[in-house]
Write a structure and sequence with these properties.
Elements: E1 2-7, H1 15-29, E2 33-38, H2 66-75, E3 78-84, H3 92-105, E4 115-121, H4 126-138, E5 152-154, H5 165-190
Parallel strand pairs: 1-2, 1-3, 3-4, 4-5
Helix pairs in contact: 1-5, 2-3
């Protein structure tokens, strides 16, 4: 089993990465393979709703790493999405990235796989960011792993996140809960428990 962790910060080794690394280490202790995927600092387009991805070839924009992430997501069994908090919401980069990843994959890469989000800030805005990130799971039939507090870590510069002892504890408990969920799902699959039936016949527009 493997968890794909997304670092939604342009800072490759900053506080968001530190939080994800704590999760990754605990997952490995639980026997789960991990990969931390870096969005990086290169320009990243927003979704423009062109519908080109419906042809089945992924997002039409191929000058960044969204399609690469989706291909990795197809092979993953669980996810953690991490974001820094700048102005009381997730970074624009990670939201644009996830909009395109989920829209272009048609949920095939993510459905029925457990996920969790993590927000990292100097001080405030983490709760609003956490709520926004969790909406991706709800629209894509993804069970959400929780922890012993909201998945927040505090720190302004690299090295400070490690000093948030409760935040780091929350990350470790989140990792253990996520590993437990994945193992339960694997046991259910081995026992012959089928995935739930999904209806997609109806699509009602508000304006007709």
């Amino acid at each position: 089993m493997k968890v794909l962790l997304l670092n939604g910060s342009s800072n490759l080794k900053g506080c968001t990465y530190t939080a994800l690394e704590e999760i990754a280490k605990t997952l490995q202790e639980e026997g789960i393979d991990i990969e931390i995927f870096q969005i990086g600092a290169e320009p990243l387009r927003d979704c423009i709703g062109c519908g080109g991805c419906r042809k089945g070839n992924g997002c039409v924009f191929r000058d960044d790493c969204v399609n690469e992430f989706v291909e990795k997501a197809k092979e993953a069994d669980g996810f953690v999405f991490g974001t820094p908090v700048y102005y009381a919401h997730p970074s624009g980069r990670v939201m644009s990235f996830l909009d395109r990843a989920f829209y272009s994959s048609g949920s095939a890469a993510f459905a029925f796989k457990p996920g969790a989000s993590v927000a990292v800030a100097r001080r405030g805005g983490t709760t609003a960011s956490f709520d926004a990130m969790n909406k991706y799971f709800g629209i894509c039939q993804m069970p959400v792993a929780g922890s012993t507090y909201w998945n927040h870590v505090h720190g302004a510069v690299p090295g400070e996140a490690c000093q948030d002892e409760e935040g780091m504890q929350t990350m470790r408990n989140l990792a253990r809960n996520l590993a437990w969920m994945m193992k339960c799902f694997a046991a259910g699959k081995a026992a012959g428990v089928e995935l739930p039936q999904t209806e997609r016949e109806y699509k009602t527009n508000f304006i007709r």
